[in-house]
């Protein structure tokens, strides 16, 4: 076995709501721990999946995911031959790492950020340099990221908005960084939470045609409410595109994923309606945090990163009050996804109770 794999431990998935209800005798649990959408997907998704003919079950799916490719290309105004699909953005993260990193290489990430980047680097026998975000406002420290680059650096990852901080970096800031990056270093901008941003020009996707070292990732798991279907995609040009096509498994998306994913992408009205709800709830919850003098980072995602101190105690209290949040990422900061307006109203009271433990 690879040495770098021996020290890894399995991802600790969320406890199922049913288990929590039984354990704490709760009637209702709001699951706010994994940044899923409380509104779920467009009803057109289930309809499209149901309409897939049973006759296809014995045959491999369309390895090019043609209908999904066309819908995504139109949506993003990109060339269909710039798109790679995967079972969630997670699969793209795994594949990119696999394609780019040689043993002994390093990657650079802001800290904190999504754990998958460093985990996959480790599997490929590469190391990760973590550059702390600005303690005051959570912004990525681009200057320090540049300083961290050495001749073994092969990739830089930026989740935008970042997870778990929720902080958004402008397209200008990223392009400026990209211009200073050595051309042999790949920059992946993971836009898993892009849909929740309420600022103009929030994506760097239009830059992919100008920079062959830029990759943009997207997922249908968050704003589209489709975490269970497992659909994500990457936007990239040559030479990465051909390498990724060669390395990915030929039938990595089933016909159900392709049909459901296509229906989701085509129903932009449903998406935008839910995004507007999240944006309003985000504003209300951040106003509440400000009014009560909590330290948090201005979020452009569907979750908020809040400094509470003694995270585990706060998380446990919230759990017993029926709110499942993420208390496993940091000992001082907690990540809470936004729920329905009703849940969020109750969450405020529960949160005040939980943070008054002192
Ligand atoms: C949730 C998330 C993903 C992965 O989503 P998939 O469900 O695998 O599509 C990727 N990046 C970030 C930053 C995320 O938070």
TrEMBL record:
Biological or metabolic pathway of the protein: Amino-acid biosynthesis; L-histidine biosynthesis; L-histidine from 5-phospho-alpha-D-ribose 1-diphosphate: step 7/9
Residue spans crossing the bilayer: none
BP GO annotations: L-histidine biosynthetic process
Reactions it catalyzes: L-histidinol phosphate + 2-oxoglutarate = 3-(imidazol-4-yl)-2-oxopropyl phosphate + L-glutamate
PTM annotation (N6-(pyridoxal phosphate)lysine): residues: 222
SUPFAM superfamilies attached to this UniProt entry: PLP-dependent transferases (SSF53383)
Cofactor dependence: pyridoxal 5'-phosphate
EC numbers: 2.6.1.9
InterPro entries linked: Aminotransferase_I/II_large, HisP_aminotrans, HistidinolP_aminotransfase, PyrdxlP-dep_Trfase, PyrdxlP-dep_Trfase_major, PyrdxlP-dep_Trfase_small
Protein name listed in UniProt: Histidinol-phosphate aminotransferase
Naturally occurring in which organism (per UniProt): Leuconostoc litchii
